Amino acid sequence: MPNHERIDPTDARLLLALSAHPRASAVALAEASGLSRNTVQSRLAALDRSGAVKSFERRVDPGSLGYPLTAFVTAQVSQRRLDEVAKALAAIPEVLQVHGLSGDTDLLVHVVATDAEDLYRVAGHILDIPWVERTSTALVMRQMVPYRLAPLLRRTAAR
Fold first, then answer.
1. How much is the pTM?
2. Each residue's pLDDT tens digit, 9-21
3. What would the 3-class secondary structure string for the chain be?
């Protein structure tokens, strides 16, 4: 796991303001977070340098790109070949994210597809990767809690 510096309450307030207004200027972020413009600029730069803040890529709904189906594929792979498998998975456009897991399953692969037939094709591509021994696919029926960090940022800001 990456070793990041901990985000303090001031950083958390700044990140909450940034998540609420991703296109805000440093002046607007300073006003929203109660910090000076110089503090905002220096803290954002430090967060970038430390790796604590990842890309500010806007989240695009895959459905708007023609991929309304979401699924998770679990995969068991040859342990010594995890890097090669990850590289092959990264080459599949429908693979959005891959997590290495502990336990009986080695990888959790987040995929999207246009329909059930396309999901079958994508799952087949995953299974065709050398060193992937077994897969299991679970179709997402409904997203119950979307990806979020605001509750953690609010807790950190309150400290």
1. 0.82
2. 999 999 999 888 8
3. CCCCCCCCHHHHHHHHHHHHCCCCCHHHHHHHHCCCHHHHHHHHHHHHHHCCCCCCCCCCCHHHHCCCEEEEEEEEECHHHHHHHHHHHHCCCCEEEEEECCCCCCEEEEEEECCHHHHHHHHHHHHHCCCEEEEEEEECCCCCCCCCCHHHHHHHHHC
The dihedral over CA atoms of 149, 82, 89, 102, expressed in degrees to the nearest 10, equals: -40
Query: What is the pLDDT of the chain when averaged over all its residues?
Result: 92
> Dihedral angle at the C-alpha atoms of 126, 86, 66, 149, nearest 10 degrees?
130
What's the pLDDT tens digit per position in 58-85? Answer: 778 999 999 999 999 999 999 899 999 9
40: Cα separation from own chain's centroid: 25
CB within 8 A of 69, min separation 6: which ones?
112, 113, 114, 115, 116, 118, 119, 139, 140
